[in-house]
Amino acid sequence: TLYFIIGVWSGFLGASMSLIIRTELGMVGSVIMDEQIYNSMVTAHAFLMIFFFIMPVAMGGFGNWLLPLMMNVADMAFPRLNNLSFWLVPVALLFMCLSLLVGLGAGTGWTVYPPLSNSVYHFGGSVDFAIFSLHVAGVSSILASINFITTCMKGKISYVLSLEYLTLFVWAMIVTSFLLL
C-alpha cells in the first residue's frame, strides 16, 4: 500500500511537470521559463514517471500485494529487506527533488548522455543529485528483486509447485527481477 501511495504522489508530481511543459510548448517563445529550466522539467518528469511512478506501483505495489497471494505464502520471504527496499524510494525521491533545486536543475534529458551531463554544461551539483537518486532507486529495485525471486522459490518449494503451473504475473515478476539484477 505504501508503494501505491508514493507512486501515485510521484505520478501527480510528474503530471504537474507535464502540464508545465505543455503550457510552455503551447505558446510562442519562452513564456514561463528559460531553456535550462525547461530541460530540467523534462528530465525530472521522465525520472519521476519511470523510476518513481511506474517502478514502485508495478513492481513494488502489485508485486508485494499479489505475489504472496499467487505463491500461496503468508508474506514476502524477507520482510525487513522489503521494508528497506521501500524506504529507499522516498530517499531517492528526495534527492531527485533536490536536484531540481540545486542550481538550475539537471537538464540532461532522461538518458543522461555525456554532452549535457558533464561538468562543462552543468557545473553545479544538480546532476550529481539526480544520478545519486537513480543509484538509490536502483539499489531499492535490486533489493526488491532479491526478495521477489526468493519468495517465488520459497513458495514453489514449500508447496511443490512446478514452474509451468505458475501464473503469467509470477513469471513476469521472476523474469523482471532477474533482469533487474
UniProtKB/TrEMBL annotation:
Q: Where would you find this protein in the cell? A: Mitochondrion inner membrane
Cofactor(s) this protein requires = heme
**Database matches in Pfam families:** COX1
According to its UniProt record, in which pathway does this protein act? Energy metabolism; oxidative phosphorylation
Transmembrane region(s): 42-67, 87-110, 130-150, 157-180
Reactions this protein catalyses:
4 Fe(II)-[cytochrome c] + O2 + 8 H(+)(in) = 4 Fe(III)-[cytochrome c] + 2 H2O + 4 H(+)(out)
Q: Which GO terms describe its molecular function?
A: cytochrome-c oxidase activity; heme binding; metal ion binding
Catalytic activity, EC: 7.1.1.9
Q: What is its EC class?
A: translocase
Matches recorded under PROSITE patterns: COX1 (PS50855)
Task: Describe the function of this protein.
Answer: Component of the cytochrome c oxidase, the last enzyme in the mitochondrial electron transport chain which drives oxidative phosphorylation. The respiratory chain contains 3 multisubunit complexes succinate dehydrogenase (complex II, CII), ubiquinol-cytochrome c oxidoreductase (cytochrome b-c1 complex, complex III, CIII) and cytochrome c oxidase (complex IV, CIV), that cooperate to transfer electrons derived from NADH and succinate to molecular oxygen, creating an electrochemical gradient over the inner membrane that drives transmembrane transport and the ATP synthase.
Q: Which family does it belong to?
A: Belongs to the heme-copper respiratory oxidase family.
What is the protein name stated in its UniProt record?
Answer: Cytochrome c oxidase subunit 1
Gene encoding this chain?
A: cox1
